[in-house]
Design goal:
This protein is mainly beta and about 120 residues long. It has no helices and eleven strands. The strands form two sheets. Strands 2, 4, 5, 6, 9, 10 and 11 form a seven-stranded mixed beta sheet that branches. It has a four-stranded antiparallel beta sheet with strand order 1-3-8-7, with no helix packed on it. A hairpin with a 6-residue loop joins strand 9 and strand 10. The chain is globular.
Length: about 120
């Protein structure tokens, strides 16, 4: 059974940093595209970043480019998101999602971890 478990969220002041982790289990981690998606209070889902499985190609939303870094450890089956220079508008629940091999959809999501950026 596939499981994705996020951790590392919390309360941080503007300009601060956090590192999120997403531990995967129940599937072979490395072939799959993995993404971070967030949801601000009262708003819809917003894609943040993706890292491919086979070639580890990376993409970022413009809103986080040059501040966030996505990475993965295929041996530990863990996805990471290093978030620097955090802003209040980065506040939200952050989810990791597992992509399907063929297509752009996601078939499994974690439960989310709360990130609050406030002074």
């Amino acid at each position: 059974e596939v499981h994705l478990v996020e951790s590392g969220g919390g309360l941080v002041q503007p300009g601060g940093s956090l590192r999120l982790s997403c531990a995967g289990s129940g599937f072979t981690f490395n072939p799959y595209r993995m993404s971070w998606v967030r949801q601000a209070p009262g708003k819809g889902l917003e894609w943040v970043s993706t890292i491919n499985g086979l070639d580890s190609g990376i993409t970022y939303a413009d809103s986080v480019k040059d501040r966030f870094t996505i990475s993965r450890d295929n041996v530990k089956k863990t996805l990471y998101l290093q978030m620097n220079s955090l802003k209040p508008e980065d506040t939200g629940v952050y989810y990791c999602a597992k992509g399907v091999l063929a297509g752009t959809e996601y078939d499994f999501w974690g439960q989310g971890t709360q990130v609050t950026v406030s002074s």
